[in-house]
Write a structure and sequence with these properties.
alpha/beta; Rossmann fold; 2 domains; six-stranded parallel beta sheet; 12 helices; 12 strands; about 15% strand; globular
C-alpha cells in the first residue's frame, strides 16, 4: 500500500472539474491510502468525497502545514494546484514521487513532468496526468460530493413555478461580469414567460433590486445552500464562475456567458450545456488582458435576447 497526496485544486470550479481525476485515481489505486489536501474555500465540496481516506485543510500557516503533512510520510504527490509554492512545498516535504505539469518554473521540483501536447478542457488536462502514467480512464463525468441538504430556501420551490438562477459576476468582479442592466432586463422577460428568477453568487457590487418573482440572494447563501438551490433549478445562467460547474455536474441545464478564448478549457462539462461567446476586435482573451480590460466589450455583446431565444 502506498500513501498518496493530492494537493489541490483550491477553487470551486477547478475542484468540481477535478472530481473525475480523484475518482479515477481511486479506481486505479484501490488499496492505496489517499489524502486530499485543499484550501478552506473548497472544504465543503471535499469533506464528503468517497474516493479519499482523509481530507486535510491547507492553512495559511506553512509551518503548521509542514508538520501536519510531514508525519504522513507520503510516497507520491499529484500536484493539481498549479502554484509554484505547492510544488516547492512538496519538494521540501521530501515526497519521493512528485507528479504534475512543469509550468511556472516549477519543473525542478517535480520527479515526473507531465507534457501537455495540446490544449485541453480542464477535466481532460488533469486526467492526462493519469493517462501519462498509463492509468485507465473509464469515466470523465464531474460529480458533486456534498451529501447534506438544507431547507432554508424551500420557499423558492413551493409554488411549483419553474425557477431560473442567474449569476452575473464573481467576487473578483473582473472582466467576466455581465452588465447589471442586462440582468434586470432578462429577469423581467423571464418572469413574463412564466418563470421565477433568483439572483445568486458572490460579488463586491450587488444589484439592489427585488420584486415579485425576482429574488435577490446575492451574497446571502453559503456554498451548501447554493448547491441545494441550484440542483432544483429549471435553468442556471452564469458567467464563468465555479457555480456553473456545480450546476452542470448536478445535471441542471446551464447557459454559460463566456469571454472569447476562456470557454475552450472552462466551459461546463456537460452535454446539455450551452455556451454563449461573442468575438470582438480584441479576441481571444487571456488572463493578462482580462486583468487590464476597461470595458469588457465582449460580455456587453451578449444580449438578453440571445439568452431568451433558448426559452422560446
Amino acid at each position: 500500500m502506498e500513501k498518496i497526496l493530492i494537493r489541490g485544486p483550491d477553487t470551486i470550479g477547478s475542484f468540481v472539474l477535478a472530481s473525475p481525476f480523484i475518482r479515477e485515481l481511486r479506481k486505479n489505486c484501490p488499496s492505496d491510502y489517499i489524502i486530499l489536501c485543499i484550501k478552506p474555500l473548497v472544504y465543503e465540496l471535499a469533506k464528503d468525497c468517497p474516493y479519499v481516506d482523509k481530507v486535510v485543510i491547507y492553512e495559511k500557516n506553512r509551518f503548521k502545514n509542514f508538520f501536519k503533512l510531514k508525519k504522513e510520510k507520503f510516497d507520491t504527490v499529484f500536484l493539481l494546484s498549479g502554484s509554484f509554492e505547492s510544488a516547492l512545498f512538496c519538494y521540501i516535504l521530501g515526497i519521493k514521487n512528485r507528479i504534475g505539469y512543469p509550468h511556472d518554473h516549477r519543473g525542478f521540483f517535480l520527479t515526473e513532468k507531465v507534457v501537455e501536447k495540446e490544449k485541453k478542457h480542464y477535466v481532460d488536462y488533469l486526467l492526462h496526468i493519469l493517462e501519462s502514467l498509463d492509468y485507465k480512464i473509464k469515466d470523465r463525468t464531474p460529480e458533486i460530493f456534498i451529501r447534506s441538504e438544507t431547507n432554508k430556501y424551500e420557499f423558492l420551490f413551493k409554488d411549483k413555478i419553474p425557477v431560473v438562477g442567474i449569476t452575473y459576476t464573481s467576487i473578483a468582479d473582473d472582466a467576466r461580469k455581465w452588465p447589471k442592466e442586462y440582468v434586470l432586463e432578462l429577469s423581467k422577460k423571464l418572469v413574463e414567460k412564466g418563470f421565477k428568477v433568483v439572483l445568486l453568487g458572490k460579488t463586491k457590487n450587488e444589484i439592489n433590486f427585488s420584486q415579485d418573482k425576482i429574488i435577490n440572494l446575492v451574497n446571502k447563501t453559503s456554498l451548501l445552500e447554493f448547491v441545494d438551490i441550484v440542483k432544483r433549478l429549471h435553468t442556471y445562467i452564469s458567467v464563468a464562475t465555479g457555480g456553473i460547474h456545480i450546476a452542470a455536474a448536478l445535471d441542471v441545464k446551464t447557459i454559460g456567458l463566456y469571454i472569447p478564448g476562456d470557454e475552450f478549457g472552462w466551459a461546463p462539462y456537460a452535454k446539455d450545456s450551452i455556451v454563449l461567446s461573442k468575438n470582438v476586435y480584441c479576441s481571444p482573451c487571456n488572463p493578462h488582458k482580462m486583468k487590464y480590460c476597461k470595458n469588457n466589450i465582449c460580455m456587453k455583446n451578449i444580449l438578453p435576447q440571445d439568452i431568451l431565444s433558448f426559452f422560446d
